[in-house]
Amino acid sequence: MAEPQTLDNNVNRREESQSDDKNYLTVTLPGPGGSSAADAILELYEDVTKHPRLAKITKHLTSDTKEAAPGIRETHVILSVGSGHQKAAVFYDECVGPLLAALYANDYQKFHVHTTTSATSVLELANGTLFTKANAGTALRIIVLSGDGGIIDLVNGLSSHATSASYIAPQVVLIPLGTANALYHSINPAEQNTWGLAALASSQSSPLPIFTASFSPGARLLVDEARSEEELATDPSSGRPILHGAVVCSWGMHASLVADSDTAEYRKFGVERFKMAAKEALYPADGSAPHAYKAKVSVLKGDEWTSLKEEEHMYVLATMVSNLEQPFCISPHSRPLDGTMHLVHFGPTSGDEAMRLMGLAYQGGKHIDDPAIRYEAIDGLRIKFQGKEEQGQWRRICVDGKIVRVETDGWVELRKDARRVLDVVTV
Ligand SMILES: Nc1ncnc2c1ncn2[C@@H]1O[C@H](COP(=O)(O)OP(=O)(O)OP(=O)(O)O)[C@@H](O)[C@H]1O
Question: H-helix or E-strand containing 153?
Fold first, then answer.
């Protein structure tokens, strides 16, 4: 039962108010059992990509539990300082940290805070300490300040060993400090971005649906702005290179623009970098038409693979989420964490037509009603190059922002993966 100061028990209330020309947003943080654990009043900036400032915290004590969740869970915080506008550490110090200190006055000092020092920090942490603990039956809660990359590194690190019967899927709290934050915006489709803070005290969670992409033997992960390449992890039973994902696997225009825009120079432009790279790819400097990507594409439904009749493509994308950026609704039939996979496909076309189709996705997913688009639920996707693309740049596959290049006669095969590796905290 709530103490007097917690009479306002309006769970998930989000309110915007204005005073002194400043915009404020109240985010209510539901605690265990759905009761309100605290209110955070955020001061918003006009630039919505800029993280808000924490103006005030009001903690609501309940008589049965003075501490909010996670209670018995061992809590880790990951600050991915290379993500997005590189504000993870600042946002933690100014907003998330003070909120956690208020919510978990007794336990906060015991939280393990990890700050990334390299592009592989999260993978190594997940692969080592976090996997060892989860596999030994320690219930973990991981608060991640990053973009999609941090979550995918966790998924890949935690899936890189066989699990014991004692494995407990860690709970992960998503704090969207990346560029696109597709997973966060697909799970939290509200118009008003509450920066994941509402989940900080919640004890509700759902398994994160994932997929596994297997590649032909010579496939390589491109790193360091494609200046170097690395071998991928291999599947212990088949020996094939693999990568797990939870957001998207694409080839063609989408993969190319993600790959081309993943440079320090482009990253300065935030989410605009994807549109900038799209324009470059769609309007080649020599005035020619955009590239027609050549490969054999097949889709899996149930146990049956069916080949698409088209031999040339522009956009081939399988996704397990609805939004690849907050306003970019690529798969309007996907529901948060529902485990479905959808294909979005269109064939070679002009730059203008490709821009028109993508523009419709920015209008709430209207592209799926256009006759040029193939949109359907699938269970897997296979792309076989069969020597049809000589240049490596046309054989780049995107898995949740990571780029893998396969060989001239190589292939990628993607399937939903039923494993429960991580649970996502929801409100
Ligand atoms: N300290 C660091 N030094 C070098 N690289 C880092 C460091 N911290 C994070 N990174 C790298 O920065 C990239 C950030 O990826 P992440 O997906 O989190 O953010 P993003 O790409 O901006 O967002 P999104 O994927 O949502 O568009 C990852 O490749 C990660 O490995």
Answer: helix 148-158
